[in-house]
Amino acid sequence: MAASRPDAISTLTLADGEIVDHLLSVRDYLRWATTEFHTHGLHYGHGTDSPWDEAVALVLGALHLPWDVDPAVIEARLLPMERRRIVQFVRARIEERRPLPYLLGEAFFAGFPFTVDERVLIPRSPIAELIEDGFSLWFPEEPPARIMDLCCGSGCIGIAAALTLPTAEVDITDVSSDALDVAKANITRHDVGTRVRAVHSDVFEGVAGQRYDLIVSNPPYVDARDLSTMPDEFGHEPSLALGAGQDGLDIVRRILREARDHLNEGGVLIVEVGNSDRHLEAAFPDVPFLWLEFERGGHGVFALTAHELDVHAASFA
User: Fold this and answer.
1) Same-domain status, 180 and 310
2) How many whole angstroms separate alpha carbon 304 and alpha carbon 283?
3) Burial of 53 by CB count in 10 Å (0-12 exposed, 13-18 middle, 19+ buried)?
4) What's the confidence (pLDDT) of residue 19?
5) Which of 122, 147, 208, 209 has its CA 20 to 30 A from that of 45?
6) What is the CATH number of the domain that holds 167?
7) Mean predicted confidence (pLDDT) in 144-172
8) Residue 42: closest CA among 57, 25, 64, 22
9) Are the beta carbons of 128 and 272 closer than 8 angstroms?
10) Structure confidence by residue, pLDDT tens digits, 75-88
11) How many domains does the chain have?
């Protein structure tokens, strides 16, 4: 990974003591962090989209303050320990290009906090909007009784679905044992162990004979070109969860081929493929993928019904 400019890093390192001695309030650190982030040209794509938003998230997170804290806290004077923690986080964010959720150990998804570290992707899927709406486009009357979160990573999709739909039973699966350890920690954190089960599975191999009303997946889908040009921040995420072959569809092809055997009649498959959406349409031109739109942005998420998977089974064989 490329480091930020050596002269900038040296200046920041030498000035740490002075920063802690002279910047005293929340306002001071918000102003300073914003300037540092802007100066060093960070990439924003793990929960924020600007130097200011990143500074707010870092300072509040370092102080263990909620997003909706009273704005009057901006004038609060900080303890030396708190000031040093903020400076350390800012330095790590700049020098190491570590994404902020990894520094804080937490990310929010669909309104819920999830424990994260470098064993899992940082939650950021637009599928959060579908969860918040209870997947009502496909289940307007009764919510899905059984849900599978395939390639679950931190478990954020499946656990958030269980929290939003309190009658649903959810299997969250991943091929990575490290990722499943994080997912299990999040199951415990949200006390959903009676309805959410973590399963080690290479796509569907670990759930033989199981059927679901809804299968949701944010699998590895980055194509080789995008993978080679991603900003340094993404280098901290597990490569197993990002790349999926030359066109990004190695895992998605398996999902399309095998999903119907695990869907109930009337069931739905929802998969995120991001920028590989163009590769998917080129590979399967006759398949009527429903491309979903999101109010808060995001793209490359499709839905197919069990019936559509039946009709186009020959295309996926």
Assistant:
1) yes
2) 16
3) middle
4) 87
5) 147
6) 3.40.50.150
7) 98
8) 57
9) no
10) 999 999 999 999 99
11) 2
Match 């707010």 to its residue by tokens: 56
Task: Identify the domain containing residue 169 by its residue range.
Answer: 111-316
Shared domain check, 156 and 302: yes
Burial class (CB in 10 A: 0-12, 13-18, 19+), 225: exposed
pLDDT tens-digit series, residues 251-307: 999 999 999 999 999 999 999 999 999 999 999 999 999 999 999 999 999 999 999
Distances (CA, A) of 257 to 26, 127, 213, 286, 287: 53, 22, 17, 15, 13
How much is the pTM?
Answer: 0.91
Given the DSSP bridges, would you call strands 290-291 and 169-174 parallel, antiparallel or unpaired?
Answer: unpaired
| Pair 126, 66 in one domain | no
Question: In the listed set 77, 104, 131, which residue is the last one of a domain according to the structure?
Answer: 104
CB atoms within 10 A of CB 214: 26
Q: Give the angle subtended at the CA of 122 by the CAs of 56 and 226, to the nearest 5°.
A: 110
